[in-house]
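Input protein
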Amino acid sequence: MPSALLDACVLFPMYLRDTLLSTAEAGLYVPYWSQNILDEAMSNLILKGKVSVEQAQNLQQTLKAAFPEAMVTVLAELEAVMTNNPKDRHVLAAAVMAKASIIVTHNLTDFDANALTPWEIKAF
């Protein structure tokens, strides 16, 4: 079954988050994320006024409970060797840790082919 690392930007819009997680729940792929990715998504939801702090905490707990296997821990040493955009090196490192074949993101320019190819990962 394919596995995909979900970037914070695709966990932000409710319709996209629900679609991605519903398809994962249906068994079409295995989703992954890191705590850093969840923190970024929740912070953006709060900053944009989409949810309260309490609602963001509840959402994060719900995501973790629904997909307990999704959480990956990123090694700082691995993140340091990533060559993609510095602000998204943690995302590529999380994908490598998860052994994901795909990164689902809106920020395609942050994941150039030269940075992804050594890890056999594609960004969509």
Notes: The helical segments are 8-11, 14-25, 35-47, 53-66, 76-80, 89-98, 113-116.
